Structure formats: structure tokens, C-alpha cells
Amino acid sequence: MTTFETFLDAQTDALGGDLVAVLRAVAEATRKISDTLKTSSLDGLTGATEITNVQGEAQKPLDILSNDILLDACRAVPSVAFAVSEELDAEVAIHVDGRYAVIFDPLDGSSNLDVNVTVGTIFSVIEAKSADEILKSGRHQLIAGYAAYGPQTTLVLTTGRGVQIFTLDAAGTYVMTTADAKITPEAKEFAINAARRASWDDVVSAYIEDAIDSGHNMRWVGSMVADTHRIFNRGGVFLYPADRNKPGAGGRLRLLYEANPIGLLVEAAGGEAIIGNEKILDIAPTSLHQRVPVIFGSKAEVDKLATAYRARVLEAAAE
Ligand code: AHM
Ligand code: MG
Asked: CATH code for 4-178?
């Protein structure tokens, strides 16, 4: 049996003790969040607060609590210089002598909380000694991962050497359940919010029409972490495209703490993650809460979309 601690010990030479300490603290924070979620209704942690976050969304008590648990974890590690969160307006300076920024969505899919559907924490660690080093492309991520809080709590992680999956046991120990996770290159299943089809661009509309005609199945949890976890287990493609009626609006999901960490995990597992004609991980961010269109999953399916976007660019250039 490989526990998370055993795994961390084996990573120390490659990552260095400071980075391992960051990862240990973040994983411990996800264990605490998992514990808090289990009895949240009994503890009165339901509904929404009257506080609105920088995204203009009403925060839930568990959004705030999860954010605080992660901030406390960052403060406990001297090498953390900054924390960036979906729930905070700007980066928070943690330790002046720190070296890393921890970037997180504390509770992704939190609109699903009151219906007891899987939610998750998404996180990423980059090197950033000063605030102006935070806005860099996803290729610079040193660690990325998510914890999915469902029937089981599962930690999915990359430190640059493949993707490892851990499951939380009854004693609160993460135990490795997959040593080298791979996303199957072909799978006939897509995830998209079909209610928004009037806002899709031609490439997405044509892909979905074709997929339905070819007998693909559809699933949409409304928690990106849960949809991602399904793709890790049986493949498929996830799409949250830009709204064609709102040029420049990006998409719904945020680059730094949603698209980038998932993009790194997906590529590390042999899948693809794109924004139209480009890879998610190559996008140079312009702001902390920047929204982007997102497509990721099984390589063969994402390649079909990437090829169609490339053709569109070539057509536009020829006009
Ligand atoms: P959140 O971080 O505020 O929970 O928002 C992100 C979530 C994703 O988990 C999910 O894929 C998406 O929003 C669902 O959006 P929609 O309600 O448009 O289907
Ligand atoms: Mg989110």
C-alpha cells in the first residue's frame, strides 16, 4: 500500500522539501474540507450568505470555510509567498520570503452543495516570489490537482511525472489507488450545458450534432471536478465554450484556478486541453480571474475540435 506520505517521501529529491511541504499542506486542507462537507447540513452550513465575491456570485458558507481552510494551510508553510483564490478579489501576500503561489478554487461546483452532488477543490502551485510573477502560462505550473468530494474523497495529482490518484480511507489517510492514470484517447461521451446551445460557435455546434448522430452519450454534472473525474475514469470530452453573443467575454470558467490545473492534469494523462486553436496551457493570462472557453478530454475527440478551429483560422486568413 502506498500512502500519500510514502509518495511524498519519494518525491522529495525531485521536488525539494519546500514544494513537498506545500503539497502536504494543500492535501491536508482537502481532507479537512472533506470532513467539513460530510456533516455540513447538520452544522447549519447550508444556503447562501449575503456576501458577493469578485465574480458577482453569492458566497455559500462552505465556499468561505473552504477558502479559509486553504488560506490557513498556506500560512502554515513558510515557502508560500502568495495565495490566489476564486473567492478573493486579489492575491494575498502570505510570507515575504516565500517562493511559491498557491492558486485555488476552494469549492468548485458549489451550486450543487445543497443537492448533495459531488463538488471539489482545484489547485495549482507555481513559483512566484513577487506578485508580478503570478500571471504566467499554465506550462509553468509545478503541481496541479483536484480533490473530488463525492461518495469517496479522491485526490488527483500531477507533480510533472504522470498523474496519481489517492482515495481517502476511513482513518483520514490518502492511499494511492492509481499510480499512472491515463485518459483513454477515444470515448463516445461529451459533457456540455446544452441549454446554452444558442450561444455556441459553429465548431462546437457541428461537433455536438455529429456526436449525437454518431451515438455519443451526454453527461453534465454541473461540477467541473465531477465531470473531469468521469473523463479520467472512462474518457470523453468536456466543453464550456465562449458565448458567441458576448464577444470578448471569454467563457464561464477561470483560467488560473480552473482551466490551467485541469489542463495540466489532462495533458499529463495523455489527453488534450484547448481553447479554440490554442492549448490552454499556452495562454498568457492577463488577469487573476480571467475567464476562458474550455475544451478538454480524450485526445481523438479534442483533436477533431482543434482541427476544425484550425481550419476556421486558415479560412479567415485566406479571405
Ligand atoms: P463555481 O466555481 O462557481 O462552482 O463555477 C464553476 C462551475 C463548474 O464546476 C461547472 O462546470 C460550471 O460552473 C457549471 O456551469 P452552468 O451552471 O452554466 O452549467
Ligand atoms: Mg469553480
From this structure: 3.30.540.10
pLDDT in tens, 60-97: 899 999 999 999 999 999 999 999 999 999 999 999 99
* Nearest Cα residue to 275 out of 236, 310, 246, 231: 310
Burial of 14 (0-12, 13-18, 19+ CB in 10 A): exposed
- Ligand nearest to the CA of residue 223, numbered in listed order: 1
44 Cβ partners below 8 Å, 6+ apart? none
Mean pLDDT of the chain: 95
- Residue with the smallest CA separation from ligand 1 atom 16 is 222
> What pLDDT does residue 44 have?
85
Instruction: Give the whole-angstrom CA distance, residue 272 versus residue 3.
Output: 29
What would the CATH number be for the domain defined by 189-318? 3.40.190.80
For residue 50, what pLDDT is reported?
A: 83
Which ligand 1 atom is nearest residue 55's CA?
Answer: 3
C-alpha cell belonging to residue 2: 502506498
Q: Ligand 2 is a single-atom ion; what residues have CB below 5 A from it? A: 105, 108
